[in-house]
Amino acid sequence: MDESTNELKKLEQELHKRIHAGEIYAALSIAEKTLEIAEEALGPDHPDVAQSLNNLAGLYQAQGKYAEAESLYKRVLAIYEKALGPDHPHVATTLSNLAGLYQAQSNYAEAEPLYKRSLVIYEKALGHDHPNVVTTHSNLAGLYRAQGKYSEAEPLYKRVLAIYEKALGSDHPDVAQSLNNLAWLYNVQGKYAEAEPLFGWAMAIYEKALGPDHPHVATTLGNLATLYDDQGKYAEAEPLHKRALAIREKTHGPDHPDVAQSLNNLAGLYHEQGNYALAEPLCERVLAIHEKALGHDHSSVATSLNNLARLYRVTDRKSEAEKLEKRAAAIEAKVR
After folding, report:
1. Is 288 exposed, middle or buried (0-12, 13-18, 19+ CB in 10 A)?
2. Most-buried pick from 86, 230, 276, 294 (CB within 10 A)?
3. Cβ atoms 123, 80 nearer than 8 A
4. Distance of alpha carbon 228 from alpha carbon 241, whole angstroms
5. Alpha helices in the chain (DSSP H)
6. What CATH number did the domain enclosing 239 receive?
7. Does a structural domain hold residue 115?
8. Burial of 313 (0-12, 13-18, 19+ CB in 10 A)
């Protein structure tokens, strides 16, 4: 194993460690260095370079740097199509990644044909019930849900659920994920009576299969709490948000973006109840986490600034709110 291969292996291990910790800003420089070494060692059109490009594109996307991410995903696609042919599963994966990038920007018309082409490739290469095929059906359902095309999303989510139940059994974590997706579809339509038992079923599966302190349990707790929030059932929502927060802090540490999400959910609950003194330190902590993990110019930082500004306004601190809003606007202008 030559020196560059050794260095690449070490950098990739450190990269995955940083990503797992939610340290997106720190991971970016490692991904850039990894790409530089891979290109020098293997040449710009090698499939292994495509993987480094893909990692960097994902980090740019996580930072809201969509133009940079798009350019890299398209380069990955070109490398794979040339090296492996247009019907290779790696091509399908890259198409799905590019579609996800467009979906994140609400460019639904650009995303849909890419998901559909990805689906055709996967089905041809891997079979109709392969996990990648099922995942792409779920992605397409999520795209329809985001557009409010609920009648198109529902049968896809139900198909995914049926495939997983048949292939994996009713107590598998992938079944729980499908239940979460279907429940969320019902929740956004205000079908709370249909959504609630599905969230509960998903949580029971996760707790049994993965343990009560797994991050997937925290996600489902947050989903169920949001369902209660949406109905104004704050007493039911609060302990679920707190338990989700405790799990994420225990699992990821205090400075992970997932912790910030739980803090933000809890702060929102307190804000809606008029408990501004409880909401404010949580909003400040969310801002600090996002700045540290994602960088000072990330769109999530702008959102955190605006949330804190909104709290300042309702507590008669107009000048402080305006400073935060001005900074948020500057960030939003950069990332557009």
Report:
1. middle
2. 294
3. no
4. 10
5. 3-20, 24-42, 47-62, 66-84, 89-104, 108-126, 131-146, 150-168, 173-188, 192-210, 215-230, 234-252, 257-272, 276-294, 299-314, 318-335
6. 1.25.40.10
7. no
8. middle
Residues 281-335: tens digit of each pLDDT: 999 999 999 999 988 999 999 999 999 999 999 999 999 999 999 999 999 998 7
Contacts by residues 323-328 (CB-CB < 8 Å, ≥ 24 positions apart): 327/302, 328/301, 328/302, 328/303
The tokens describing 113, both together, are 């044909």
Which residue type sits at 30?
I
- Residue 311 CA to residue 320 CA, distance in Å, equals 10
End-of-domain residue from the set 185, 213, 246: 246
How many domains would you assign to the chain?
A: 3
For 68, 94, 117, 123, 321, the CA distances from 87, given in Å and listed in that order, are 25, 12, 10, 10, 53
Asked if residue 311 belongs to a domain, the reply is: yes
3-class DSSP state of 295: coil
pTM: 0.89
Domain-located, residue 164: no
Average pLDDT over residues 51-80: 95
CB 164 within 8 A of CB 175: yes
The two structure tokens encoding residue 139: 């992605």
